[in-house]
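Example 3.
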Amino acid sequence: MASPSSQNRTTGAFVSRLFYRESTLGPILLSPGFIFLIVMMAYPFVYAVYLSFTDKESGGPANFTGLENFQKLFSYGPYGRTVINSIVYTVFALALKFLGGLGLASILNRPFVGQRYVKALMLLPWIMPTVFSTMIWQWILAPGFSVANIILVEKLHIFSENLPFLRDERFAMASLIGINIWRGLPFFGITFLAAIQGVSVEILEAAKIDGASPWVAFWRVTFPIIQPIVMVVVLISTIGTIGDFDLPFLLTRGGPNDATSLFSLLSYQLTFGSGRIGLGAAVTMTMFPLLTALIVASLIMVRRRQQND
Amino acid sequence: MTTNPAVRKALKALPFYLLLGAVLLFLLFPFYWGFVTSLKSENDVYNFTGNFLIPERPSLSNYDLVLTKRGYFTWFANTFSVSLISTVISTGISVMAGFAIARLRFRGAALAGTLIFVTYLAPRGFLFVPLALILRDIGILGQISSLYLTYPTFLIPFATWLLSGYFTNVPREPEECAQVDGASRIGAIVRITLPMAMPGIITAGIFAFTASWNELLYSIAFVNGEANRMLTSGVLGAFTAGDFLIYGPMMAAATLASLPIALLYVMFTDRFVSGITAGATKG
C-alpha cells in the first residue's frame, strides 16, 4: 500500500536533485534556448550551405550543381558591384563612426549644463525605429523638393545646383554612408564615453604631472586602456554594417545601377524577386569567410576584455 | 579685451557649445523635420517659400488620413502583439540560459556562452533564405505566426548575452543564504536572484521589444497579405505610389509608429543607456 507514495517520493527526490545539482540544472535551464537556436539557426545554416550548391528555384526541385552558383556569381556584374559596395560602405561608415564616436565621447566627457538631457536626446537616432527615421531621410534627400537641397543651395548658397543625393551613383553611396553614420554615431559615442569614464583618474593625473598634453595623454594613456571595448564595438558594428539591409532597401533598392546594392539586398532580390533561391543562398554564403574572420576577432577581443576585468 | 572673468570664461566655452549645438542639430534635425512635415497640409508640404521650418497653418489632416486608413490599426495591433509575444518568449528563454551560463558550473557552460555570442553576431540577412523554406515546409510562411518563430532568432542571442553579463554581477550570497534557510535552489533563484536581476531583465525586455518593433527584412520576406502586415511594411506600402512617395501622411504615420518606442525611451532612459554600454547593438 505504501509503494505508490514511496515511488512518488523517489521520483520527486530524483527531480529535485536534477534541479539542485549545478551539473544538471545548468543544461536544463540552457536547453530551451539551445534547442531553439539549433532548430532556427544551426539547421538553417546547414540548409543554406546545401542550397548554395543547388539550382533550387522557387517552386522547383533542388538539383546539386556543385560550385556552379559561385562561378555564376563571380561573373555576374551586380555581384561584383555588391562586393565593392559592401567594402566601401563598411570601411567609410566604420572609420567615420569610430572617429566621430571618439569626438562625441570627448565632447560629452566635459561637464556642461543639461548634460543628462543632451545625452538622452543624442541617443534618439539609434533608439528610434530605423525604418521610420529612414523614411524621413528619404524625404530630406528626395529629388526635386528636398529640404537638404533647399537649405544647401537656396539658403546657404554652398552649392550652385541641386545635389542628386539618391539619383547619382556616388552620391547615393555617400548618402547611405551618411545615414548609417547618423544612426550609429550615438551608439559609438555613448559606449566610448562609458569606457573613457571607466579609466582611473589617478593614471590620468600621473600623465598630466609627467607633462603630457591632453592629446598625448588621450592616445598614449586613455586609448590603450579603452582599446578592448573600442574594438568590440567596432567589430560588432562592422558585422551589422556589412549585413545591412534596411538602408539600401528603403532608400535606393540597390540603385542606381546597383551602386548601393549590399549582400543582404542582392540575396533578397535574387530569392524573392527572381525566385532563384540557390543563387540567393550562395550570395549570403560568400559573406561567410569574412564573417567568420570578424567573429573570431570579436571572440578574441571579448576574451581579452573579460580577462582584464 | 574684456577683463570680466565670467565673460572671458563664457567666450572660451563658446566654440565648445557651438560644436555641441552643431552635433545636436545633425542628430536631431530629421526628427524635427519629419514631425513638422506631418503637421503640414498637402499644399504646404512641397512649399519651400517663406519659413518652411515652421508650419504656417498646422493641421492634423495627415494624421486624420493615417488613422482612417484601412489597415493602420491592424498593422499597429500586429506589430504590438508580435513584439510583445516574441519579447516575452525570448526574455523568458534568455533569463534561464543567461543565468545558467553566468552562475552555474557545468560542463559546456563556457562553450555555450561562446556559441550564443557567435549567433548574436550573425547578421539577420544571413539566414533568411533557408528560414523562408523551413517556414514554408511547416506551413506558416506568409502568416504572422512565422514572425513569432523567427524574431527570437535575433532576440535570444543578444538577450542571453546581455543577461549573462548581468547575472555575473548579481551577488551570490543572498541566494546561498536562502538555501541555507531551507529554500530549494529554484525557489531561491526565483524569489531572491530574479528580483535582484530585474533591472537587467527589464533592459533585455525593452531592447527585445524595440528590436522587434523595428524589424523589416523578416516582416516583408515571411509575411503576406494586407491584414498580416507590420507597421514597417504597411506604412511603406501604403504611402508609396510607384516611384512617388506621399510624404505628408508618411511622416505622420512614421511619427505615430515611432511613438511607442519614444514613450518606452522616456520611461526607461537609464535602462536603454546601460543596455547600450553592455553591448546590445544594431550597428
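Chain B touches chain A through 90 residues (CB under 8 Å). Residues 239 and 245 of chain B are 6 Å apart (CA to CA).
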